[in-house]
Amino acid sequence: xxxxxxxxxxxxxxxxxxxxxxxxxxxxxxxxxxxxxxxxxxxxxxxxxxxxxxxxxxxxxxxxxxxxxxxxxxxxxxxxxxxxxxxxxxxxxxxxxxxxxxxxxxxxxxxxxxxxxxxxxxxxxxxxxxxxxxxxxxxxxxxxxxxxxxxxxxxxxxxxxxxxxxxxxxxxxxxxxxxxxxxxxxxxxxxxxxxxxxxxxxxxxxxxxxxxxxxxxxxxxxxxxxxxxxxxxxxxxxxxxxxxxxxxxxxxxxxxxxxxxxxxxxxxxxxxxx
Length: 274
Prior knowledge:
Blueprint: E1 2-6, H1 11-16, H2 21-30, E2 36-39, H3 48-61, E3 65-69, H4 79-99, E4 103-106, H5 117-138, E5 141-145, H6 162-171, E6 178-182, H7 185-189, H8 193-200, E7 204-209, H9 230-239, E8 245-249, H10 255-272
């Protein structure tokens, strides 16, 4: 098992440039991470010089990027916009390939008012399947997540309800779409974390280790202090042979202090369970 981190607590600093990507890599290494994670919002340019600079920053710190989070909106009621969203995601795949990032977190889309359940599922499945084909050309791996509401969106995730998430999962089996299982989002919806995890276990690729202090709504808190059943989750995936990346999604807003505590907690619990 290896540990990386999506630094939600540091998003504003990194996006604004107050904290550089080199700074994040350096501080992440000090915190005990094996690699760092990016949001696509961290990347400010798309020139060869910029990508080379990012690679040099990472190499200088002896770090790499495991996952980049993206925010495709494949449930938009306008077909032309859905096509644009696929083009945006293809661009993110290209950026990831330039930077040696293997995993790309993908979503179904937003719960736009007026979009029927059957239409949203149909569109999400269609575009996620097409995205898998594009990803293969770039040598990157899309991982589908059960999200709540990212700051990049106006509405909550269409597949936040556990039954919609698992139906989309089942309907993308033929293309082998992998899963990034978030340990807090299912709780935030109010469903049973372990029940949903059991259903998606066959295509589990990565874990977003996140925590929430409330059931039925997402309130990020310090990892290990909320409702996420980490011991049960880690025990189950360990028994099923999982030995991949646990990507901490640290949103307690404690900065590097919160990240350091999260890394220690995740490694401790992983080491304790059998």
